[in-house]
Each structure stands twice: as C-alpha cells, then as structure tokens.
Design goal:
Shape: globular
Order of helices and strands: EEEHEHEHEHHHEHEHH
Largest sheet: 8 strands, mixed
Number of domains: 1
CATH architecture: 3-Layer(aba) Sandwich
Number of helices: 9
Distance between the termini: 34 Å
CATH topology: Rossmann fold
Oligomer: single chain
Mean pLDDT: 92
Structural class: alpha/beta
C-alpha cells in the first residue's frame, strides 16, 4: 500500500497528524503488533474529513530495548508522545495490541483519556497463535496465519505476507515480537477494568478468532461506561474489513461523547 500521509518527526517520536486542530481533543489511533499506521488509512481520511484532528503514533515495537519490549513499555512511549505534543486530553482508538495499550493507558492516566474506542483489543485473553509463528520461514504458513486475522482471507495480501516474512527473518525484530507476544499474555487488565473512567465504545468483529466475541462481552461487563457494537462477517480488524461501518460507529460515538469539532476564533 503506497504511503499517502506524511510522517512527521519530533525527537524520539514519529507520527501522522491529519485534520485541523480544534478545541476538541485529538483522536489517537493505535495499531496492533503486526500492524502499521496504514491499517487506519480509511479511518484517518474519514475522521479528518469530518474535521477531527487525527494523530497516529508509529509504535516502536522493533526499537524498544529488549527488556522494555512490553505493553507497559509502549504505554510509557505513548505517554511521552502526549507530553512532547502538549496534549492533556485525547480520544484513544486501538486495535488488538493498540487496544491493550489504550486500556492500560486509561487505567494509569484516567484524567488524560476523554473517551476510547476498542476493536479486537488484547488484555483479556487471545486465542494462542503461538510465538512459533515468528520463527517460521515458509510464506505459505505465514499466509495461513495472516489469514486467521480476517474473516475474508483476501485481506492476507502478498504485501502483508512479505512484510511478516521480512520481520521473522530479522533476528532483532523477531525477538521483540516474541517478547511482545509473551507480554500481551502476561499483562492482563481483567482485574482493573472497573478503574476505567472513560466512556468506551467496543466495535467487534462477530467472527474475530483471535479475541473472540466473549472478550468484548467481558470488557462490556467490566468497564463502567461501555457500549458494544458487533459487525457481521468481520474478523480481528474491523477498520480494515468494514471501514465504512467502523467509521460510522466511531463518528456517532465521538459526536455523542465528545461533540462536533469546535474551532476557536483564534484559529
């Protein structure tokens, strides 16, 4: 997929910044473990077109020190990014590992999170894919594991398989993915959900085989202010398989909980 957004840089951080700055909190999109900001292309465009500011930090999964390659390490990175950007109130939108980061961040920094949207979030449990997937060298096997993410296997494109193949053949990146996969299993938020103050929208694929629908039900029951929407014929990445539906749910939630973007006269 060709890059269509400019990657900006400040010391220690790389990110996408689209849409106008307004008096409303920015919407921060957090990608998954084998994901990238390009997973959010349709959502970035739609939210920006509706005048929301959209930030997408590029998570340093392959760049953290090995000892700090954990979900908590990424929470620290995201918090540092917000401090560097002088942000004290955000809407978090997270998929898979990104949803896990959002959950932990909302628990640790409740006053910084205005609202959150989660899809396929880890942090409760995941169907064990096995860290051996990161040791495989056969493209056919990797394609099969990539297809497990989606309801429609056509989303396991040659480009995606090639990206995974390159990762598992890079020792440093493969080691960090293995460590992160283990951290996802270890850093459960199950007993802390009641501490989440932010209104939370759960958008879940009905056929998610990695974080199945009962994970969404656990989150719905445990988070004090939560609502759940299912998308049929959809796997672990609703914003990719059904972007129009995912974006509409997200926009309706933003308008309800955050409001329409408001621009000050000074801007």
């Amino acid at each position: 997929m060709p890059d269509s957004f400019r990657i900006r840089e400040i010391p220690g951080y790389r990110y996408i910044d689209e849409g106008p700055v307004s008096d409303q909190p920015p919407v921060v999109l957090l990608h998954g473990m084998l994901g990238a900001y390009t997973n959010w292309e349709d959502t970035i465009r739609e939210l920006a077109s509706q005048q929301y500011r959209v930030l997408v930090p590029i998570l340093p999964i392959y760049d953290l020190p090995l000892y700090n390659t954990t979900v908590s390490g990424l929470v620290e990175h995201v918090h540092g990014f917000f401090q560097a950007m002088n942000l004290d109130g955000v809407v978090l939108v997270g998929n898979s590992l990104g949803g896990h980061i959002s959950l932990l961040y909302a628990i640790e920094h409740p006053h910084n999170v205005v609202a959150q949207v989660l899809c396929g979030a880890s942090g409760i449990y995941e169907v064990e894919m096995g860290t051996s997937v990161f040791r495989r060298r056969d493209r056919d096997e990797l394609r099969e594991r990539a297809a497990f993410t989606f309801y429609d296997p056509r989303f396991a494109t040659n480009e995606l398989v090639d990206e995974i193949y390159d990762i598992v053949n890079d020792r440093g990146r493969a080691l960090r993915l293995i460590r992160m996969a283990r951290a996802v299993q270890a850093e459960s938020v199950s007993e802390m959900l009641g501490r989440i103050q932010a209104p939370t929208l759960l958008v879940w694929g009905r056929e998610d085989r990695i974080t199945p629908p009962d994970v969404a039900e656990v989150l719905l029951e445990g988070i004090p202010d939560a609502q759940l929407e299912f998308i049929d014929a959809c796997g672990h990445a609703p914003m990719m398989e059904h972007p129009a539906v995912f974006n509409q749910f997200t926009l309706d939630f933003l308008r309800d909980k955050v409001g329409e973007p408001v621009f000050s006269r000074a801007s």
